[in-house]
Each structure stands twice: as C-alpha cells, then as structure tokens.
Amino acid sequence: MVMWNNLDTLTSYQELSKVGRVNLAEVMSGDNGAERVKKYSVPMAAGMVYNYAAKQIDDKVLEALAKLAEEAQLTEKFEALYNGEVINTGEKRMVLHHMTRGQLGEAVEADGGDKRDFYTGEQQKIAEFANKVHSGVIANAAGEKFTTVVQIGIGGSDLGPRAMYLALENWAKVNNTFKMEAKFISNVDPDDAAGVLNTIDLAHSLFVLVSKSGTTLETLTNESFVKDALKNAGLDPAKHMVAVTSETSPLAKSDDYLAAFFMDDYIGGRFSSTSGVGGAVLSLAFGPEVFARFLDGAAEEDKLATNKDMLANPAMLDALIGVYERNVLGYPDTAVLPYSQALSRFPAHLQQLDMESNGKSVNRFGEPVNYPTGPIIFGEPGTNGQHSFYQLLHQGTDIVPLQFVGFKNNQMGRDVVIEDSTSQQKLCANVVAQIVAFACGKADENRNKNFEGGRPSSIIIGDQLTPEALGALLSHFENKVMFQGFVWNINSFDQEGVQLGKVLAKRVLAHETDGALKVYSDLFNI
Amino acid sequence: MVMWNNLDTLTSYQELSKVGRVNLAEVMSGDNGAERVKKYSVPMAAGMVYNYAAKQIDDKVLEALAKLAEEAQLTEKFEALYNGEVINTGEKRMVLHHMTRGQLGEAVEADGGDKRDFYTGEQQKIAEFANKVHSGVIANAAGEKFTTVVQIGIGGSDLGPRAMYLALENWAKVNNTFKMEAKFISNVDPDDAAGVLNTIDLAHSLFVLVSKSGTTLETLTNESFVKDALKNAGLDPAKHMVAVTSETSPLAKSDDYLAAFFMDDYIGGRFSSTSGVGGAVLSLAFGPEVFARFLDGAAEEDKLATNKDMLANPAMLDALIGVYERNVLGYPDTAVLPYSQALSRFPAHLQQLDMESNGKSVNRFGEPVNYPTGPIIFGEPGTNGQHSFYQLLHQGTDIVPLQFVGFKNNQMGRDVVIEDSTSQQKLCANVVAQIVAFACGKADENRNKNFEGGRPSSIIIGDQLTPEALGALLSHFENKVMFQGFVWNINSFDQEGVQLGKVLAKRVLAHETDGALKVYSDLFNI
Prior knowledge:
The structure is a homodimer. The first copy, chain A, is an alpha/beta fold. In chain A, the strands form four sheets. A six-stranded mixed sheet of chain A has the order 1-2-15-12-10-11, with helices on both faces. Chain A has a five-stranded parallel sheet with strand order 6-5-7-8-9, with helices on both faces. In chain A, helix 13 (346-358) links the parallel strand 10 (333-339) and strand 11 (376-378). Chain A is globular and about 70 Å long. Chain A is built from 18 helices and 15 strands. Chain A has three domains: 22-83 and 305-489, 3-Layer(aba) Sandwich (Rossmann fold); 97-294, Rossmann fold (3-Layer(aba) Sandwich), CATH 3.40.50; 498-526, no CATH class. At the A-B interface, helix 3, helix 7, helix 8, helix 9 and helix 13 of A face helix 3, helix 7, helix 8, helix 9 and helix 13 of B.
C-alpha cells in the first residue's frame, strides 16, 4: 500500500537538506572531474546515456536522494499508476499513457474492455488508414493522392506532435520514409489558420482534427475556418478531414469525417504524443513503421523507469536531482538545451509537459503545500542559445540548472570541414565546452571576464536522433515529471489552473462584464 | 554630468523598498479596478498604449519610481548615449543603434564621418540593391529573378531579423508588398543548413551572410556549407551571395559577394535589427518602403523614451516597474505573451535582447553588484500558452510577472464566426480575461480550483501589427532593457559571458583537453 505524504513531512527530506553542499567548480576540476564524468552516468534506451557528473551532487547527496526515493515510494507509485490505480485524484481518473507503448504491469480493464487492446487497436486502425492514404486507396475527389497533412489542435494536441514531427522530418527525408509534409494550426488567432492555408494545396491536403472532448473552442473554430476554405475551393470537407477524439465526443460518430480514431480520459493532452493524438499525424507523415519505432524507444525507456535502483533509473534520478535543486538549493528555473536543430521545439513541448503537470500549489488532496513545486522551463537549441541568453546563464546573478541533449551524429549526413573540423564536431565540441565552462568557470582579474562556475548541468548523449531515441527522450521527461509530482505529493495529471481564464473569456464574449474586465474589453472594442 | 552609482546606494531605492505593498487582487476588483485600467495607461507610438493597471503598483509606488528615475538620471544617461558618449565601457564603444532610425540629439562623428549619414547611406545602398533584385536588374546567371532570400547569421544576426520577418510575412502578403520568401540558417548543426537547403530552389536563391567581425565560426561554416551546395548545383556562389559586415572585416572587400553592406562596432548584434543586419533581408523580403515604415515606428517610440516625465515615457516606466518586481518584490522571471501568431518568435528575440544585455553580475566598472539584475525571459504566443504553461502561471508556487501584447485587428482579414464571435474577438477576449484572472483570482472552497490572484501583468495594445507598430514594439523593449541596465548600473552592451565557451570549444577541437573536458570529448568521439 503506497502512502501519499507531503515532501516536508519525510524524514529523508530533512536529512537531504542537511547533507553538505558540493562545490561544483572544485569537484569538476582535474582528475576528480574526469572520474566524475566516467562514474556519474547511467544508460538509457536506444543506446543513450544520462550523465549527471556536472550536477551539484556527490555520493552523499545521491545516498540521501535514494533514501528519499524509497521513503516517497516512487517506484511503488509508478507501479500503482501503470496497474490502473486512480492516480489523477482531481479528475478521478486512471493515468494510462504508458500503455500506448507497452504493458508494464497487469492488464487494466475499463469501459468494457482491456485498455491496452483499445490503444493498440486504435493505432492499428490509424496504421491501416495511413497505408491507404499513402497508396492512394484513400484519395481526394479527383482520385489524386494526399500530399500534406494538417493537424488542427492546441496544447497537448499541438506542441508534442509538432515537436516530434520536426524532430524526425529531416531524418525521414534522408531515410526514404517521408510520406507527407505536416503543418499545424493551433492558435485561435485567425492569422494562424489563414497563414497555414496560404502555404498549402488544399485539394491535396488531409486535416486531422484533434480534440478529446470535441468541445475545445480554439480547435472547433479553426476547424470551421478550414471547412470554409475547403468549401470555397469547391471541395467537400468530409472527404478531407479525420478526427482524433474520445468515443463519447460529438465528433465520434459524425459524417463530417473520413474516419475517427479514439482516445480516452486516461491520457492527458500533454502525455498524448504516443496515443492517436501523435499517432495519426506522425503515421501519415512518416509511415506507421516509423511511429512504431518511436513507441518502441519509449517502451524501452519506460521499463528503465520501473527500476527500484535509483542509479539505474535515469528518469527517477533526474527527477530527484531536480527536486534537490528546486527545494534544497533553491533554483526556480531549468533550461533545456538540445544541441540538435531537429529538437528546436522539444523545449516548448517540455515546457507544457512540466509546467502544466507540476505548476501546482496544492497536494493531491487539495491541501496547500509549503514548498516550491514545478520550476519554470525554457530553452532553445544550441548553438543558437549560446549567441543569445547564455550570457545570463554564465554571468547572471541567478543560477539556472541546465539540461543538455546531444548526439554524436547528425541526421542528414551532409557536412562540411572548416578549420579541420566538421560542423557536427563543432556542435559536439560546443556542448562539451559549455558543460565544463558552466561547472568550472575561470578566474580572471578583470571581474567582467571572470566566470564563477558552479552552474550545474546534466547531459543526455545519443548516437543519433532516430525514432527510437526520440521515443526514449520523450518517455524520460514524461517519467521525470511524473516522479517529481510523486515527490511533491501533487496531482500532475489535472490542470484546474486553465479554467478561470476560459470562464472569464466567455463572459467577455457574452458582454457580461463589469469592473476592470469591462474596461479592458472596451480597449479592444469587444 | 551623469553619475554612475549602484542601485543599492541610491536613497530613492531605499525609499522605494519601504513603500507599502499593493494587494493586486484587491485593487483590481470592482469600480476601483475599472478606474485603474483607465488611469494607468500611457500612449506609445503607432497608436498603441502601454497599460500597467494590473501591475503591483499604485500612486505611491509610482512616485517612488519617478524619484528613482530622477536620482538614477535615466533620461540624462539616454541623452549621453545617443549623443555619442562611450556607454559600452567594457568594449570602450559608443552605442548608436538609435541612429539607424533617427537623430535624437547631436550629430556624432567617428571613423572619419557622420555616423547617421553612414547608417542611412548603407540603408540607401540596400534599398537600391533590393529594388534591382525585385526588378530583375540583378538576377541569376540565367537572367531569372531571385525568389528567395536566405539569411546566414546567428544570435543577433538571426533572432531579431527572423522574428521581424515572421511578424510581417502575412501582413506583406495581404498588402501586396511581399517580394521574396525569406529563410534563415543559424545553427552550426549541419542539419540546420541541410534542412533549409532541402526546401529551396538554389538557382533562384540569394544568400545574405551576416557577421560583423567576419569571423563568426558558425556563420562562416554555414557559408561554406551553402557555397558547396551552390557549386554542386553548377552555380557560382559569388553571384548568389551578399555580405553584411563591418568595413574592416575580411568579408568587406571580397570578390565572393555580389555586394557588401556595412555596419560598425557601435551597434551590438542584439540591437541590430534596424541596421543593415535586419535591413538587407527585410528590404529584400518586403521592399525598402516597408522597412522604412518599420524604422519610422521605432523612431517615433525612441522619441517617447527621451521624455523626462516617467508617466509619459512607456519604456522607462516599464523598465522601472520591472526593477521594482525584480529587486523589491523578488520575482526572478518575466513571461512575454503576445496574442498574435505573427509574433511567434518575438519572445525568442526579447530573450536574447534582455538576457544577454542584463544578465550580468558586475557593474559598469567591473565591480560585483549585491542585487539581482536581468530576469529570465521566456514566452510563447497566446492562446497557445494558455493550453501549455499557464497552469503554473496561475497556480504555481512562484509568481511570474507577465507582459502581454495584443491587437484589435488581425493582419490577414480572414475570419470566421463561431458561437456569435469571430476568432479575433475570441483572441482578444482571452487576453482580457487572462489579465483579470491573474490579477484578481477567484476563491473556491475546493482548493484545487482556487485562484489566489495577485499575479501582475501589463499589456501593450495596438490596432494592428503593422510595420510601424512592430518598429515601436522593438524600440520599446530595446529602450526598456537599456533603462534597466542604467538602473542596475551595469553595461548592457557587452557579452563577456559568451567567451569562455568559445575558448574551451576551440581546445576540444584542437584535442588540447584534459580532465572532465577530455572525458566528455571522448563520450562524443571528438
């Protein structure tokens, strides 16, 4: 039986706070630093490693973190989750996104069936549909193949699938698995839909409407925008659109769609990239086999997250170090810095995943907590970030923990040698240099050129950003966020914080306003 | 004579710290809230307003801030800056980016000439060049018009110009001033260049190489990558490439370029969007007239920044409220949230502008400061952010000040009515609702659905995102960052924090490593 307790009630947390602080600049210097880099590394799926040598930890801190993991019953809670316990206490729902890519524990029955069969069955339907689109069995009214797929969705129906698409777009092109270009419409700003429609050939475009409830206002508005455009072009919207939604949604049985693929309430939007939400657009773009490889990578990484040995469980280890940084060392932000242009929108996805899951002030029983929870997440790809905000990261007054990601090889196999090194070598040399620069700093008599160091980072290193590696990366961060939610004793799977804005926006549109709301509305002539 | 003193030595700062805190949820409620929204508003250029009613301020705080502005001699320092004083003490340089869009004070002579004439002269050369490209006088070897312009640059040569291009791309299309599509190559990751080259027609592409020093390794590497591609396609790189650089750079007099346009050391990369760095690509994309309108908007806003009355100087007011939030209220982050899809990359530009300028720990004389300086900046467009990280902003344990931007009208004039309102109305209703939701919150017995409120924001409201409005927005934030640097007594115009990483990366590439640096290099097989 798992016990749900606030972090500040745990003995191991009190002990963790008392462990001596690590002087990062000191321990990362010389031979000791070299030893740390060799030692503080744990294998991930898809041949990757999570290296945490440049974090402000040592064996004593790790020992205390392992005790915290044990007292907080992190693996037991994960087990309860994947075995179908109602972990989402706010909405009284199970949390089953892991099941879209494997079966970690017992079979889970709900809604009159086996949930794993349900998710794999929907993915099978999507695969068959995608194959028919690619072969031209499903085609436009003129019998011509669809060439473009446009996802209409917002939040988790947009950020994750978009980030995954960009991550594999060029990989698929050079590996001859690129089937259809994908575009995304998300914002209720009409310029978003209009801008995308301006760049595509409507007659050869297939739209994927994604809304679990079938009531997301932004998404239904954009659907209508697109339908108008299709009709104006003399096309039948019902022949150009599929839906990804829940079986109980108004979209589920509608004749407005070529097909409908189903999800359910046990998978939250920000955890839905491996469900049909990501599955439809990615299978259409790259083929179902590539999407299956992505799921395999995630499944392999999920298995590692079940490991009770913290030092062999990268997601749990990453989570605990993050808690140490947030609650003991007092750092409020984390920057995610992939040295891979293909991961350009991966930080934006993690921003939602992390901040929407753990940006909470009450525990899972609705009682206020007395400690900081989820951090601010931001990031851009290196080396671009180096020429942008790294100045503050190196010499600013606040310390920001860093999460690097890098790959030995690029995706496209085209490169150039300048000054005796390839671009890929320069890219890798830069991330290596940054880790050491942040950790060790460099004293200079000119204080303006002085680097204090002591700025912690970790790095995930892989051979290449393949579908498997991407799946493993995604799983790693999903599970990290989940474990942190367990440690903070919060419900990482609801998002009540988005409701008030929706309610007030409706009042504004209904002209039921007073006070400040009315004057602001007047300023916009609403 | 201006005096440069640390913030914590100023009497007015001590007084500011003692002013009573404002209970935002309270003052923004009811009639008082309505009055605040009407009262706490200041006109900006291009018909915009900066409304700060939902900030944690009242007349007493404003009075204290005005005294701080006076004691810190903010307008005097700005005056010294635009009259050519050596404000960039680290690099011993003047700071003249305002001059690219107007003449605020005295003429400034340097390098044997009038600097204003120099900047406008270069812009004139760019305009003439762009017109010749558009008319086909300058064309490819086959005599065909160039259709695509590709900027090769990184940091300030990428983020600002890219954000400005995206901001006006659709506006230009519907206003029939769209001349050439623009693409951007920045990252040293070879997949960046390869990915962009995959999507363009090389024979009809013109490349703009941007590097002030002519030695930026990422940019020269990408130039070489592009040249190889051009040669492999049987094209002469010298007929497809222009340079934007300083007159003393190795690129300046090279035969490798169709033309070279000049900048100088008095304009830092992150402040260079209104110089040739932004001027070449934007004039080619939209025509010189559009770029001139963008400059006009910036010039108009710059004039407002010279106003000694803080309440009529939006950039200075914004800067001071930000200092109050950072140093007195203790908030370490600021989120920038444009309710305009066209501004999708504007937050990324502001991230560089702000964090690279003010992420410093020493004052302008190289002495450590004892107070926090520049905050972390992050952001995404609304309504997307609402479905992502707003959960934390509403209900997280930390308070994040917010900077909203919104426009009454969209750019493209296409819209759809759903549930009795247009998309544009929904967009505006959402930003209005968010301001009030963040400020006032809403009590709920279920603590999980409770909103504390007290979360401060300001909003810039405009009619439409036109070139003038974009120029004014850019100027507003540039000047805000400048004023904050003055208050913190730091040099906002150098970036020594980027140097150490460069040095170490070179050592890695030369295999001159030991300790941690060597082991990390081995992990990447460098």
